[in-house]
Amino acid sequence: MRILYSAIDQPVPGTKGGSIHVAAIAEGLAALGHTVTALVAPGTGVPAPSRVHWVEMAPPFGSPHLRLARSRPIRQLVDEIRPDAVIERYHNFGGEAIRAAARAGTVAVLEVNAPVIDFPGSKKALVDRALVVEPMRRWREHLCRLADLIVTPDPGILPPGVPPGRVLRLEWGADTDRFHPGAPGPPPFVRLDVTTVAVFAGAFRTWHGAIHLVNAIRALRDRGQNDIGAVLIGDGPELARVRQAAAAIDTIVFTGALPHDRMPAALGAADVGVAPFDLSAHGPLALGFYWSPLKMFEYMASGLPVIAPRAARIPSLVEDGVEGVLYPPASGADGVADALMTLTAPARRQALGAAARRRAVRDYSWAAHCAALATAIERARHARAS
């Protein structure tokens, strides 16, 4: 198939989850033999040589709110390459590629990573209702109607009335060939002089909960347990606050943001992966845990047991006591600390980590994701042709 993948607000190469996701989907579909053209924002450096045709096309002024201004060049590109399918990464103010697909009569695929519906208390919803006709809601629902296929990890974030036959529920994933136990390469930190190293990798935002890991290490030290340390990888608006909380704790290391190609070695040098999400700190999560968290899948692919809250659908992603340890969400840092204490024995960590690796290869590899996606697109093409 000829596939056009439009994700113009995601820089590639990049270190954020969206950038990793877009690159993995484009590369994965190309690896299956499809001809892939990917529209992305300019990243740091240039994409590695591949079979994907990368086209730089950022939204005006870098604002995803202005994506529709790129409608004309995307329509022209669709007319030029005549794709069999157009995939658009959803945004509230997007629709430029989905509309071009509908105009050309080709299969339109909407990739939904964030809620299409409004969460309780949403300021955007209040503004929309104040406009009487709710134009933003109507626009989002219009985009869903245009799509032949909607790909999402959680159908609960879609508008009511979307036909189930047009929804592909699919988790995002990890590169299980690159992320594996003992991944080669020098880690980006000196191994701490402790017996257990916990790692957090991701964005430093309140709902990612990095501060819970720092406070857990502090609580463990207060209990006299000094043999568990932490490495925190990434950056974001919460980084300064988290660093301040970690002041004077010599068993906590910050690496800053890392290129994604250094992450396998970074995770391979750790013992436990921590995903201390705080669902109460982010309004949209009132709809449920709609994320498909890359950090958890990369931890698992690396053979690390996962520590995470026992909330929403997280137990369906990581089985408690089998692939990791889940703690009560309300317990916060104390829950993380208690979970870490259950993973101080190397044999237990290895057993859970091996099970996590098997689960990642079976359920969460990008190869499996792209194979399922390509099959669903082919079905949508046949349905449109019949």
What can you see in these coordinates?
With 386 residues, the chain is an alpha/beta fold. It folds into 2 domains: 2-173 and 365-385, Rossmann fold, CATH 3.40.50; 196-363, Glycogen Phosphorylase B (Rossmann fold). The protein has helices at 17-31, 71-81, 96-104, 123-130, 135-146, 210-222, 239-245, 263-268, 294-301, 314-317, 332-341, 346-363, 366-385; strands spanning 2-12, 35-42, 53-56, 85-89, 107-111, 149-152, 167-169, 196-201, 228-233, 252-256, 272-274, 306-309, 324-327. It has a 7-stranded parallel β-sheet, with helices on both faces. A 6-stranded parallel β-sheet has the order 10-9-8-11-12-13, with helices on both faces. α1 links the parallel β1 and β2. The longest helix is centred in the C-terminal third of the chain and has 20 residues, at 366-385.
How would you concisely characterize the structure shown here?
The protein has 386 residues and is an alpha/beta fold. The chain has two domains: 2-173 and 365-385, Rossmann fold; 196-363, Glycogen Phosphorylase B (Rossmann fold, 3-Layer(aba) Sandwich). Helices cover 37% and strands 18% of the residues.
